[in-house]
Design goal:
The protein contains two helices and seven strands; from the N terminus they run E-E-E-E-E-E-E-H-H. With about 190 residues, the protein is of the alpha+beta class. The strands form two sheets. Strands 1-2-3-4 form a four-stranded antiparallel beta sheet, with no helix packed on it. Strands 5-6-7 form a three-stranded antiparallel beta sheet, with no helix packed on it.
Length: about 190
Protein backbone atom coordinates (compact mmCIF):
# COMPACT_ATOMS: atom_id res chain seq x y z
CA UNK A 1 0.00 0.00 0.00
CA UNK A 2 1.30 3.42 -0.99
CA UNK A 3 -1.09 5.93 0.57
CA UNK A 4 -1.71 9.06 -1.43
CA UNK A 5 -3.55 12.24 -0.49
CA UNK A 6 -6.37 11.85 1.97
CA UNK A 7 -9.52 13.89 2.42
CA UNK A 8 -11.98 14.31 5.25
CA UNK A 9 -15.68 14.69 4.48
CA UNK A 10 -18.98 13.40 5.84
CA UNK A 11 -19.50 10.78 3.14
CA UNK A 12 -22.55 9.02 4.53
CA UNK A 13 -24.47 12.06 5.84
CA UNK A 14 -24.48 10.97 9.49
CA UNK A 15 -22.91 14.23 10.70
CA UNK A 16 -19.60 12.52 11.50
CA UNK A 17 -16.49 13.14 9.44
CA UNK A 18 -15.11 10.22 7.44
CA UNK A 19 -11.70 9.70 5.84
CA UNK A 20 -10.95 8.55 2.31
CA UNK A 21 -7.49 8.04 0.90
CA UNK A 22 -6.11 7.07 -2.48
CA UNK A 23 -3.54 4.34 -3.04
CA UNK A 24 -1.09 5.45 -5.72
CA UNK A 25 0.20 1.94 -6.39
CA UNK A 26 -3.14 0.23 -7.10
CA UNK A 27 -6.68 0.83 -8.30
CA UNK A 28 -7.94 1.05 -4.73
CA UNK A 29 -9.46 3.80 -2.65
CA UNK A 30 -9.96 3.28 1.04
CA UNK A 31 -12.95 4.69 2.91
CA UNK A 32 -12.87 4.82 6.71
CA UNK A 33 -16.16 5.87 8.29
CA UNK A 34 -15.91 7.94 11.48
CA UNK A 35 -17.36 6.74 14.78
CA UNK A 36 -17.83 10.24 16.21
CA UNK A 37 -15.37 9.70 19.06
CA UNK A 38 -12.12 10.29 17.18
CA UNK A 39 -11.83 6.69 15.99
CA UNK A 40 -12.52 5.17 12.58
CA UNK A 41 -14.18 1.95 11.47
CA UNK A 42 -12.23 -0.62 9.48
CA UNK A 43 -11.45 0.54 5.97
CA UNK A 44 -13.62 -0.34 3.02
CA UNK A 45 -11.82 -0.81 -0.26
CA UNK A 46 -13.30 0.66 -3.45
CA UNK A 47 -11.86 0.06 -6.92
CA UNK A 48 -11.35 3.20 -8.97
CA UNK A 49 -10.28 1.73 -12.32
CA UNK A 50 -6.69 3.03 -12.36
CA UNK A 51 -3.75 3.80 -10.10
CA UNK A 52 -5.17 6.67 -8.07
CA UNK A 53 -3.00 9.66 -7.23
CA UNK A 54 -5.65 11.98 -5.84
CA UNK A 55 -9.23 11.75 -4.64
CA UNK A 56 -11.88 14.27 -3.68
CA UNK A 57 -15.60 14.27 -2.95
CA UNK A 58 -18.56 16.22 -4.23
CA UNK A 59 -22.26 15.78 -4.96
CA UNK A 60 -22.05 15.20 -8.71
CA UNK A 61 -25.59 14.03 -9.36
CA UNK A 62 -27.53 16.28 -6.98
CA UNK A 63 -28.87 13.52 -4.75
CA UNK A 64 -27.54 15.13 -1.57
CA UNK A 65 -24.91 12.44 -1.05
CA UNK A 66 -21.20 12.95 -1.71
CA UNK A 67 -19.67 11.02 -4.59
CA UNK A 68 -15.94 10.26 -5.02
CA UNK A 69 -13.78 11.52 -7.88
CA UNK A 70 -10.38 9.88 -8.36
CA UNK A 71 -7.52 10.88 -10.66
CA UNK A 72 -5.78 7.88 -12.21
CA UNK A 73 -2.14 7.79 -13.29
CA UNK A 74 -2.22 4.47 -15.15
CA UNK A 75 -4.35 5.79 -18.00
CA UNK A 76 -4.53 9.55 -17.25
CA UNK A 77 -8.25 9.35 -16.57
CA UNK A 78 -10.72 10.34 -13.93
CA UNK A 79 -12.94 7.83 -12.18
CA UNK A 80 -16.30 8.93 -10.84
CA UNK A 81 -17.71 6.73 -8.10
CA UNK A 82 -21.36 7.63 -7.49
CA UNK A 83 -22.77 6.82 -4.08
CA UNK A 84 -25.68 4.40 -4.07
CA UNK A 85 -28.68 5.90 -2.31
CA UNK A 86 -32.02 4.39 -1.44
CA UNK A 87 -35.09 5.93 0.11
CA UNK A 88 -36.41 4.10 3.10
CA UNK A 89 -39.94 4.44 4.41
CA UNK A 90 -41.21 2.93 7.62
CA UNK A 91 -44.86 3.65 6.87
CA UNK A 92 -45.52 0.06 5.82
CA UNK A 93 -44.23 -1.17 9.18
CA UNK A 94 -46.53 1.01 11.26
CA UNK A 95 -49.18 -0.94 13.07
CA UNK A 96 -51.88 1.12 14.76
CA UNK A 97 -54.34 -1.73 15.25
CA UNK A 98 -54.21 -1.53 19.01
CA UNK A 99 -54.04 1.19 21.64
CA UNK A 100 -50.69 -0.18 22.83
CA UNK A 101 -49.13 0.10 19.34
CA UNK A 102 -50.49 3.64 18.98
CA UNK A 103 -49.17 4.54 22.44
CA UNK A 104 -45.76 3.06 21.56
CA UNK A 105 -45.70 5.09 18.35
CA UNK A 106 -46.55 8.26 20.28
CA UNK A 107 -43.65 7.51 22.65
CA UNK A 108 -41.28 7.01 19.71
CA UNK A 109 -42.47 10.23 18.09
CA UNK A 110 -42.12 12.12 21.40
CA UNK A 111 -38.56 10.88 21.74
CA UNK A 112 -37.80 11.87 18.15
CA UNK A 113 -39.27 15.35 18.77
CA UNK A 114 -37.24 15.68 21.99
CA UNK A 115 -34.09 14.72 20.10
CA UNK A 116 -34.94 17.17 17.34
CA UNK A 117 -35.55 19.97 19.84
CA UNK A 118 -32.28 19.18 21.62
CA UNK A 119 -30.39 19.42 18.32
CA UNK A 120 -32.23 22.64 17.39
CA UNK A 121 -31.25 24.10 20.76
CA UNK A 122 -27.62 23.05 20.28
CA UNK A 123 -27.54 24.52 16.76
CA UNK A 124 -29.28 27.71 17.95
CA UNK A 125 -26.74 28.07 20.74
CA UNK A 126 -23.88 27.61 18.28
CA UNK A 127 -25.41 30.18 15.94
CA UNK A 128 -25.77 32.65 18.82
CA UNK A 129 -22.12 32.16 19.76
CA UNK A 130 -21.09 32.68 16.14
CA UNK A 131 -23.23 35.83 15.97
CA UNK A 132 -21.58 37.18 19.13
CA UNK A 133 -18.13 36.44 17.70
CA UNK A 134 -19.13 38.11 14.42
CA UNK A 135 -20.34 41.25 16.21
CA UNK A 136 -17.21 41.30 18.35
CA UNK A 137 -15.06 41.06 15.23
CA UNK A 138 -17.04 43.89 13.61
CA UNK A 139 -16.45 46.05 16.70
CA UNK A 140 -12.74 45.18 16.65
CA UNK A 141 -12.53 46.13 12.97
CA UNK A 142 -14.23 49.45 13.72
CA UNK A 143 -11.88 50.11 16.66
CA UNK A 144 -8.79 49.20 14.61
CA UNK A 145 -9.97 51.43 11.77
CA UNK A 146 -10.38 54.30 14.23
CA UNK A 147 -6.95 53.70 15.72
CA UNK A 148 -5.42 53.52 12.25
CA UNK A 149 -7.11 56.79 11.32
CA UNK A 150 -5.75 58.45 14.47
CA UNK A 151 -2.24 57.27 13.63
CA UNK A 152 -2.35 58.22 9.97
CA UNK A 153 -4.47 61.39 9.86
CA UNK A 154 -2.95 64.74 10.73
CA UNK A 155 -4.01 66.39 13.99
CA UNK A 156 -5.28 69.75 12.71
CA UNK A 157 -4.62 71.69 15.94
CA UNK A 158 -1.03 70.47 16.19
CA UNK A 159 -0.42 71.17 12.50
CA UNK A 160 -1.92 74.69 12.79
CA UNK A 161 0.22 75.47 15.85
CA UNK A 162 3.32 74.29 13.97
CA UNK A 163 2.38 76.48 10.97
CA UNK A 164 1.91 79.56 13.18
CA UNK A 165 5.25 78.89 14.91
CA UNK A 166 7.00 78.54 11.54
CA UNK A 167 5.41 81.80 10.31
CA UNK A 168 6.51 83.66 13.48
CA UNK A 169 10.06 82.36 13.08
CA UNK A 170 10.08 83.38 9.43
CA UNK A 171 8.86 86.89 10.24
CA UNK A 172 11.45 87.21 13.04
CA UNK A 173 14.20 86.19 10.61
CA UNK A 174 13.00 88.72 8.05
CA UNK A 175 12.93 91.45 10.73
CA UNK A 176 16.43 90.56 11.93
CA UNK A 177 17.74 90.55 8.36
CA UNK A 178 16.17 93.91 7.61
CA UNK A 179 17.67 95.35 10.82
CA UNK A 180 21.12 94.17 9.82
CA UNK A 181 20.63 95.71 6.36
CA UNK A 182 19.67 99.06 7.95
CA UNK A 183 22.82 99.10 10.11
CA UNK A 184 24.99 98.30 7.11
CA UNK A 185 23.34 101.12 5.18
CA UNK A 186 24.09 103.57 8.03
CA UNK A 187 27.75 102.59 8.03
CA UNK A 188 27.96 103.10 4.26
CA UNK A 189 26.25 106.48 4.59
CA UNK A 190 28.94 107.59 7.06
CA UNK A 191 31.68 106.85 4.57
CA UNK A 192 30.13 108.87 1.82
CA UNK A 193 31.61 112.35 1.39
CA UNK A 194 29.89 115.19 -0.23
Amino acid sequence: VSPGPLSIEDLNGDGILDVFVSNGSSESLYVLLGNGDGTLQNSRQVTSGGNTFDVTAGDLNGDGVLDLIAGNTSDNSISILLAITTQVSALSQLNLDSAKNASDLIGILDTALDNLNTERTRIGSSLNRLDIIYRSNELSIENFSGAKSLNEDADISIEMAELVRAQILQQAQIAALSQSNIRLQLVLDLFQFE
